[in-house]
Specification:
The chain is built from eleven helices and 18 strands. The N and C termini lie far apart (about 45 Å). It has two domains: about 220 residues, 3-Layer(bba) Sandwich (FAD/NAD(P)-binding domain); about 120 residues, 2-Layer Sandwich (D-Amino Acid Oxidase, Chain A, domain 2). The chain is α/β, with parallel strands linked by helices and about 400 residues long. The strands form three sheets. Strands 1, 2, 8, 9, 10, 11, 17 and 18 form an eight-stranded mixed β-sheet that branches. The mean pLDDT is about 90.
Length: about 400
């Protein structure tokens, strides 16, 4: 352990989906890459709706073929106003065929995705894995020095912080974060049901937040039920039979008889954004860089775009002999992520606020906006394309 450690081009700290993807993508550029993360089974049964650009990235990294057969295609998305208010929005349907796609993306359980990512990472000779975690991170002028919990010393020209909401990497870089509590919580669980979902994801808008039924393989769906914190705790405390009945009622029985599967999770919702995405030889990806409520399936998809961007920028920099942690390289990453993340955060925040608002003019504006999207084809198709990937990302 006291031997001099190699100096890596990049060390990725954190082994969640965004961190693993970043490590694989960086190693694929030829950068000498290390991944510092504990090997641990994925902790819960949550799922992720991977939109088109995300599955394209995973395919390029030779990950998607390992888990594609265990994912369900998302071909139609329904938005249903279930607020019961005087002013309600019409139902809006988005069909992938309308923009020439077989599907918008795929819903997959995170355990399966993580297994595929871990398998791919283990194959890459240019990616060194340390089954440990960072104890200290010390950015210096030329390198970042890391001391692990196991006592190992590591160093790199660039650290990619994928270490979550309580990011040690972000703290070490001196990057402040803005946080806002939404006073809502998301209850997540999976269900079996008697009727086919027909690859339709249905989002019911309630006065306390959206409740989304997202297809899984077979007659199964994942459910993300957002509500006021106290109501979410009440739902969490229900036994499986009563929660099954509650979910069936909330779904208006469109899926037939519902049976809740074992395992559920409750998450307080916040919006969190850093004041910078990179500084002092540290670049942030995933929930180190942004935390959003689970609306519009943007969270992990944004994290995967973080991973793709940092890999592309580092790869190009190193091909011309640049230091991957140099200020000008980090500035490119900052520029690449700023508009994408800010625009998604603003859109999701407005959508959530407008749904929760009891202000009649706001309800009217929301209903009118959804009516326009539903009735005007070009606007609806624009919304679908922007939801999948930002237009400025598609140009290149």
């Amino acid at each position: 352990m006291n031997e001099a450690s190699p100096v890596y081009d990049v060390i990725v700290i954190g082994g969640g989906p965004a961190g693993l993807t970043a490590a694989i993508a960086l190693a694929a550029t030829g950068a000498r890459t290390a991944l510092l993360a504990r090997r641990a089974p994925y902790a819960d049964n949550r799922t992720t709706a991977l939109l088109g650009a995300s599955t394209d990235l995973l395919e390029r990294l030779d990950v998607w073929r390992r888990c594609r057969d265990q994912a369900a295609a998302l071909q139609t998305m329904r938005l249903v106003d279930d607020t019961g208010r005087l002013i309600r929005a019409p139902e809006v349907r988005f069909s992938s065929q309308e923009i020439g796609l077989d599907q918008f993306g795929f819903n997959i359980d995170n355990r399966t995705l993580m297994t595929a990512l871990e398998a791919r990472a283990a194959e890459i000779s240019g990616l060194t894995r340390y089954d440990d975690e960072a104890a200290t991170i010390d950015p210096q002028d030329a390198l970042v020095s890391i001391r692990t919990s196991g006592g190992r010393s590591l160093s790199a020209r660039l650290v990619v912080g994928a270490d979550g909401r309580q990011s040690l990497s972000r703290e070490a870089a001196g990057i402040d974060v803005r946080r806002r509590d939404l006073h809502q919580s998301a209850l997540t669980f999976n269900i079996g049901h008697s009727r086919s979902h027909k690859n339709i994801s249905t989002e019911f808008h309630t006065p306390q937040g959206p409740c989304v039924f997202v297809p899984l393989p077979g007659n199964r769906c994942s459910v993300v039920w957002v509500s006021a914190a106290r109501e979410a705790q009440r739902l969490m405390a229900l036994d499986d039979s009563d929660l099954s009945d509650a979910a069936e009622k909330q779904s208006h029985s469109i899926l037939g008889r519902i049976t809740v599967e074992p395992g559920r999770n409750l998450f307080p919702l916040t919006i969190e954004s850093p004041k910078a995405f990179a500084s002092h030889r540290v670049a942030l990806v995933g929930e180190s860089a942004h935390v959003l409520p689970p609306i519009g399936a943007q969270g992990l998809n944004m994290g995967l775009r973080d991973a793709a961007d940092i890999a592309e920028i580092v790869g190009k920099a190193m091909s011309t002999g640049e230091d991957p942690g140099a200020p000008q390289v980090l500035a490119r990453y900052q520029a690449a992520r700023r508009t994408d993340v800010a625009s998604r955060m603003i859109a999701i925040d407005i959508a959530n606020r407008s749904l929760l608002s009891d202000f009649l003019p706001m309800q009217s504006l929301r209903a009118a906006g959804l009516h326009l999207i539903g009735a005007f084809g070009p606007l609806r198709r624009l919304a679908m394309r922007e939801g999948l990937a930002p237009s400025w990302k598609r140009v290149s």
